[in-house]
């Protein structure tokens, strides 16, 4: 019976993370987006990675949810379709492939999060560059976007790791 709660809590948490991504970005826009730096919050990505690694049964449809929330994210926040609709399910797929090889602990999950954060940000940079949405070079992207984004999301990960882990493990 507790697992049924996870199937209910997961999508609710996913949409709360989606809402908080935009809301917190708006509230803290002066701090997150001060020229030339920009830090992008990735609470949805964090929630998806926790779902993959803390779902013992691997029974949640995390990939389908990632596709759906990626579509909503693209539609509502970016206006450029395909960026998160492709990158979020890709991250879920990568996490599912490496999960059996990893020992689940704080540092491992932190490194997985940083790597997947880099993948999503790099994918976004490439997609936007190919679509002529931006015209930055790779060095500017790394210094002014990727670095600050990793720093902010690292702090959020450290703050939310134990509460989210406890939540997942209590309903799993």
TrEMBL record:
Localization (cell): Cell membrane
Matching Pfam families: MreD (PF04093)
Transmembrane segments: 35-54, 75-94, 106-129, 141-162
Keyword Transmembrane helix: yes
Keyword vocabulary terms for this entry: Cell membrane, Cell shape, Membrane, Transmembrane, Transmembrane helix
Keyword Transmembrane helix tagged: yes
Membrane topology label: Multi-pass membrane protein
Main location class: membrane
Family assignment from sequence similarity: Belongs to the MreD family.
Protein name per UniProt: Rod shape-determining protein MreD
Species for this entry: Lactiplantibacillus modestisalitolerans
GN (gene name): mreD
